[in-house]
Amino acid sequence: MSYLEYNLKTVPSGFKKILALNWPIIFLLIVISGIGFAMLYSVSGGILERWAQPQIQRFFVGMVGLFVVAMVPIWFWRNMSFISYIFAVILLVSVEFVGVKGMGAQRWLDFGFFRFQPSEIMKITLVLVLAAYYDWLPQKQTSSPIWVAIPLILIVFPAFLVLRQPDLGTALLLVIGGGAMIFMAGVHWGYFITVISSGIGLAVAVFHSRGTTWQLLKDYQYTRVDTFLDPSRDPLGTGYHITQAKIALGSGGWTGRGFMQGTQSRLNFLPEKHTDFIFTTISEEFGFIGSITLLSLYLAVLVFCTLSGLANRDRFASLLTLGIGTTFFLFFAINMAMVMGLVPVVGVPLPLVSYGGSAMLILLLGFGLMQSAHVHRPQSK
Q: How big is the CA angle at 334 (ends 330 and 335), to the nearest 5 degrees?
């Protein structure tokens, strides 16, 4: 949609933009984040300053960013999409040279007063640039091989940089999320059969490369796969995390042990209880009912994103909204599957609940883009 076409549509202005926001999503984000604050307070043993307070401060900064981004016309973000993508790539390349190491991986850039992961920015900018690309490309050409190759390059290059950090979880999110964007843009299903077949071939190559000079994954990543297939092979070593997580999940029963009464987290049996494995603490303290409640809140956000995207008649805004929703879905789906032992441990946080600044801030800015698409959706006069 050209700038002239955009101006021929009626969109809210001034205070009406506030009223035009998708308030159900904002309310759901606040509720989910509130659950996260309470759980961080619980796993810290009642020490507010340890994890909950910094997370609350980041949330308020993120919400301000959400409202600012939402008030900017959607055509501006479309025009900035490629610049944002290049900026995110530059940051990923910078990690290779000046990145800060932590927990065996080089994923962060340290600016003194704060540290963040550039890979988190790429999760949103990739959705942004793919939405802009397919908005520019005529729909009848979406399945042409040359026009399919371009988005593949846009996806694979940053995924490769992230995999080198190494961060398998984020690399998978980029590939799956990017693939979902291509699918939603209307690319022929035959390409996906080819990609799936190639993925199976790559998986075979990954396992055959183990122990060779051309080994495709790090040793600890192979160990994670081994642990996923059989956690009991080393219950006190590599299988300790998932074993303790399953104990916490099962011990909560239907209604849980009660707030701040979880033994796995309070006695420090549960690893990474404030980040990747915080869902197991929710299950232990609030049981099956608490877990299903949180899952329902996540699904409600996804439903509202989907409805907004499908109702938007602007192709860029529609793809952007659906892409943000898909990214959000992948976050919580992979995390929950990981802590339940359904997929290998890949280090994906639970959105808006796990402790961490980069993921929360970038995700809220992503929802700001979704809100901008919703507020400025074109309507004929």
A: 115
